[in-house]
Amino acid sequence: MPHAPESHEEASYDPVERDPVHYAEQALLGALLLAPELLRTTDGLEPDSFANAAHGALLGAMRTVPAPEEQGSQAGLAWLQAVLKEARRQAPALTAAYLHLLISACPRSEHAVAYAAMVRSEHARRSIRLHAETLAMAAADVTVPDRPGHVLAAADTLARHPDGLAQDFPAHSRSLPRAPLRPAEPPPVDDEADDQERMLLASAVTWPATVREMRWLAAEDFVRPAHGGLWQCIAALAHRGDPLDPVTVMWEAQHRGVLVADTTPSEVLALLGTGVGSPDYWGSRIVERALLVRARAAADRITAFTDDPANTVHQLITGGRRALADLASVRRRWQQAAGPSPASTATFETPAAPRAGPRSHVPVTQPLARTAARPTAARTP
Predict the structure, then answer these.
(1) What is the pTM of this model?
(2) Would the pLDDT of 349 be above 50?
(3) Co-location of 165 and 204 in the same domain
(4) What is the DSSP letter of 264?
(5) I need a labelling partner for 135 at 20 to 30 A (CA). Which of 6, 29, 37, 44 fits?
């Protein structure tokens, strides 16, 4: 009759199954314990290259303890004991039995170079993921005084890391990573972002000359697609030199397909009827927010690539560069927006004349009223 486990019996603390890199690390360490002379083939590995901290401690101990001068059984046994003693300084749970398990886990000690390459590859994956997580945390950090500079510094560090890895991991035919299984969710629309976009659109109708200088603001920078469409209408009228007022913008929006069920003509007229501040001020706030959002999206995309074990290091490098290229485009536009305003705009521009005609009966939305009450650091038309 088979023995039924008692409730008080201890269960194994090890998981039933491990990631593939765990077995690669065991095979590599087993090969090095069997043939210490193979340590010279692992110069590219460091103790922190191992996913298992105890495995890293063993590698460090093997490099610290002098290798046996002769390969006799007594010399080899003494070296193993010295390695175990040194490794237990960092990993006290290591036992002699586990060293024997590592030796038995190595199929062929002459394949140590291949095992080491597996360990390096997985360490590169973890390091890319770590840099991507650092970028995501920088994008979400609201405590730093210069959020764009903080985010771009993290992005530059992330960009330099794959460049260094590319020398160690050659390219192959399949260079693009597999797409993430789940697409990234769009960021939520908060009241502050909505207010800034509304104030930009309303003030842009009053300052058409400023709009012509704002080529750095794109429709994809807006959190609401309808606001991005209205900005395209305003920019098109300003660049053509056509009359710019709420009615002409509404007409342009109709031809561009911006007027839909949730963006009616009366709502457009009400939105564009009252503007406070200058459009370049509000535009710079919008493109700065877009920079932070795009940085978080790039970080999440790279992290999703690293989550897929089928992607090789070279594919992670390629995918990471493409994700950061999307960030680079909005970075250039943010740098243009953060620069000094053109002298002609600040000195010679005059606001457009207020539109004549009956006052709109559509009330201004509450977010717009809240924003109008906030003081701005820009000129007021």
Answers:
(1) 0.76
(2) no
(3) no
(4) -
(5) 44
